[in-house]
User: Fold this.
Amino acid sequence: MSQNEMERQMDEQLRDAVLQALAADPRTAPLDLRAGVLNGIVHLGGSAPSDDDWAWAEMVSARVPGVRGVVNRIEAPGAPSPARTINLNLASISMKGEQP
Amino acid sequence: MSADALALSESQSTARAQETLVTVPCFANLLVPVQEAVAQVATHRHFDAGQVIYLEGEPATALFILEKGWVKAARMSPEGREQALLFLKPCEVFGDVAIFTDTPYPATVMALEPVEVWAIDKSAILDLVARHQQLAMAVIRHLARRVLYYVGLVEDLSLRSVEARLAHTLLSHIESGGERLVVPRRAWTTFDEMATRLGTVRDVLSRALRTLEEEGLLKVERHQIVILDPAGLAARGDRYD
Assistant:
């Protein structure tokens, strides 16, 4: 298996874990949320009824082991535009597969 | 809704999809039966400004043909920095790379303004490509053009200075505004958006614009950038610093 395929498989597993975490949390379970994962970074989409739920979904995802960062593009009243430019501060976080 | 009304609505939908299809450069020369076959499996979708069409790392389920509005495709670097890959206007196709490589979407695509698109399911387009050689060639042409675009983007980001990238990008978006050559500023064209396209940050972009303005190549106005010296700007864009 090539390194790209291995990384893709790890991202797919991480995506499953994030979707499971969101489905298991009583606050995010009823929401219409989507997730993608690339390079260990989670990308969230869908919609939430409030900016509190918006932030909660991000926190639930960030707590999943292996997640390096979360790009929150969920639509919610009072939340920033999903299409805004987002830069994450990942400088202090190790790459996936590397020991901290 | 009666069955007749539904059938009419479906045929109207197919006709509208076909009208969009013929405006897409790589699909314009398809034989009418092939165009009809593609249009029949296309589903209309609307997105409001700011909405996500798909997320990077999400399983690829469809390719999209843009009928109206602008979209942005952006990818997050492993270091967490957003890089805009493409700003697409009507008559463009997107989502195809992931469909034909059987990988998740490599970038997030967002609507920058109200957008109308035609979505074609992965299984449907793969089936059509297998049955129609002419469509397969059109897809290859489109993917090859996309490769060339990315070769240019790599060259831009790795070899050109921010001023040269800016000059190059402005020239590719130039329009005729009366007697002047202008790059119109769209509602969503913020400094942040321009900076992510040029692989830089807002402050550096601001300095680059000022430099080109001081050199007499352009003039920044509220709703547009006026190109004063296209030849000079082209020379600036071709300079490898």
Remarks:
- Chain A has a mean pLDDT of 90.
- The interface with chain B takes residues 8, 11-12, 15, 34-45, 68-69, 71, 73, 75, 81-91, 95 of chain A (CB under 8 Å).
- Chain A has one domain: 3-92.
